[in-house]
Amino acid sequence: MNQPHDTDDVANTSQSPDSETLAVDANDGADVNGGNAPTDEGPGCLPAIVAGTLLLGIAAAVICGVTTWILFQKRSEIAVRTLQGFVPMIEQSLLEPHDKAKVIEQFEGLIKEIGAPDYPPTQAAAIMQRVVRLPITHWGELDAIEMYIQENFEDPDKQQAITELSRVRSAIQTNQATVFDIIDVVEPVVIVDEKTGTRTLKSKIVPQDVRGVILRAKILADRAKIEDKRFPRIEMSTILRQEIKTAKTEGGF
User: Fold this and answer.
1) Tally of CA atoms within 13 A in the half-sphere of 222 that contains its CB
2) pLDDT tens by residue, 164-208
3) Selected residue with higher pLDDT from 208 and 81
4) Spans of biased composition, class Polar residues (predicted)?
C-alpha cells in the first residue's frame, strides 16, 4: 500500500538538484545583468575643456588684432617718442660739434613735423625704421678710433687702418651696414655698464684693441663688397638727411 508513495518521493528527490541548479543560474544571471553591470558615464569634462580652449583662442586672436590695430594707428606717436629718446643720446655722443648740431636740428624738425595731427602714419613709420638703423652715436666712436690711429700707428699700418674705417663709413652710407654691425666693429674698445647698459670707449685704448677693430672693419667691408680704397669724408648729418628723404619718397625697408 505504501510503495506508490515511495516512488513519488524518489522522483521528487531526483528532480530537486536540477531545480536548485536552475535557481542558482537564475540568481547568477540576475547578478550579472543587474548589480554588477558597467554603467555609461558619458563624455565627461572633455567637451567643456575643448570648448573653453577654443573660446580662449578666439579671445586671444581678438585681443591681438585690437592691439595691432591700436599700434598701427599710433605709429606717428611712437615715432615721435622714439626720436625724442634719441636726442639726449646724440647730445652725449662723440660726434664732431658742428655735425652733432646739424643732426640734432634735423631730429627736432622731424619731431615737430611728425607730431602734426594729419601726418601720414605710414611715412612716420618709414622714417623711424630708417633712422634707427643708422649708427648715429657710434659715428663719433669711429672718429675717435681714427684719431688714435693717427697718433699711435706708423705707416703702412696707419694708412691701411684708416682705409678700412673709410670703407666702413661707405658701407653705412650705402645702407650695407647697420648700427648692429658697427656695434660689433667697435666692441674691442668699448666698455658696457652692466647696470645701465650704457656704452663708453675705454679710457685707456691699447694698439691691440684697435687692431681688433680694424680686423672687424675689414671683414665687414669685404662682406659688403666695398672697394678697397679710401672714400671722401662724409658727415653723419648728410647721411641722416639722405635717409629721411629716401623714407619720404620710397618708404622703409
Assistant:
1) 6
2) 999 999 999 999 999 999 999 999 999 987 777 778 888 899 999
3) 208
4) 9-19
Assess if residue 204 is contained within a domain: yes
- Joined grid coordinates for residue 178: 647697420
Residue 251 vs residues 32, 67, 190, 248: alpha-carbon distances, Å: 80, 24, 34, 6
- For 219-223, which contacts have Cβ atoms below 8 Å and span 24 or more sequence positions? 220/168, 220/171, 220/177, 220/181, 220/184, 220/185, 221/164, 221/167, 221/168, 221/170, 221/171
Provide the whole-model pTM.
Answer: 0.69
Closest CA to 216 of 141, 151, 156: 141
Q: Do 241 and 115 contact (CB within 8 A), yes or no?
A: no
C-alpha cell of 234?
A: 662724409
Residues of the domain holding 180: 137-234
Q: Are strands 199-201 and 190-192 parallel, antiparallel or unpaired?
A: antiparallel
Q: Is residue 150 part of a domain?
A: yes
The total number of residues shown for the chain amounts to: 253
Place of cell 580652449: 53
CA distance 188 to 210: 7
- Cα 11 from Cα 21, distance rounded (Å): 17
- Domains contained in the chain, number: 1
Q: 47 preceded by cis ω (within 30°)?
A: no
Q: Please give the DSSP secondary-structure letter assigned to residue 73.
A: H
Is residue 56 in some structural domain? no
